[in-house]
TrEMBL record:
InterPro entries: PP2C, PPM-type-like_dom_sf, PPM-type_phosphatase-like_dom. The keyword DNA damage does not apply. It is an enzyme of class 3 (hydrolase). It comes from the Eukaryota. This is protein-serine/threonine phosphatase. The lineage of its organism: Eukaryota, Metazoa, Ecdysozoa, Arthropoda, Hexapoda. One of its GO terms (molecular function) is protein serine/threonine phosphatase activity. SUPFAM superfamilies: PP2C-like (SSF81606). Pfam families: PP2C (PF00481). It comes from Papilio machaon (Old World swallowtail butterfly).
Length: 108
């Protein structure tokens, strides 16, 4: 997971400590719908940050990119302008489009 500190170190630090939990605790994750778990995990984190007292006064945000490998499938999700690339059999492959909470799935 990569988090940008450009808009607020506190937000990026909070997301870095908690985003993976929001994703892997989603029922969709355990049912094999990783794409939906990633989307909902980002939304759950966003809601939790809005409710977190220590972050209430912060006018800040963060971008993030997550790469998750489960059952030999590589999933990539991003929010904001963070991007990821992969080398697949020696060929560079971009994961992300310019869409908020975009998902790309590569089968290994």
């Amino acid at each position: 997971m990569c988090l940008s500190l450009r808009c607020g170190a506190n937000i990026a630090e909070y997301a870095g400590k908690h985003l993976h939990k929001y994703i892997t605790n989603r029922p969709e994750y355990h049912l094999g719908n990783v794409e939906e778990a990633l989307k909902q995990g980002f939304l759950d984190l966003d809601q939790a940050m809005l409710e977190e007292d220590l972050l209430q006064e912060k006018v800040a945000g963060s971008t993030a990119v997550v790469v998750l490998i489960k059952d030999n499938v590589v999933y990539c999700a991003n929010v904001g302008d963070s991007r990821a690339i992969a080398s697949v059999k020696g060929t560079v492959s971009t994961f992300n489009n310019r869409i908020s909470v975009s998902l790309v799935v590569l089968k290994a």
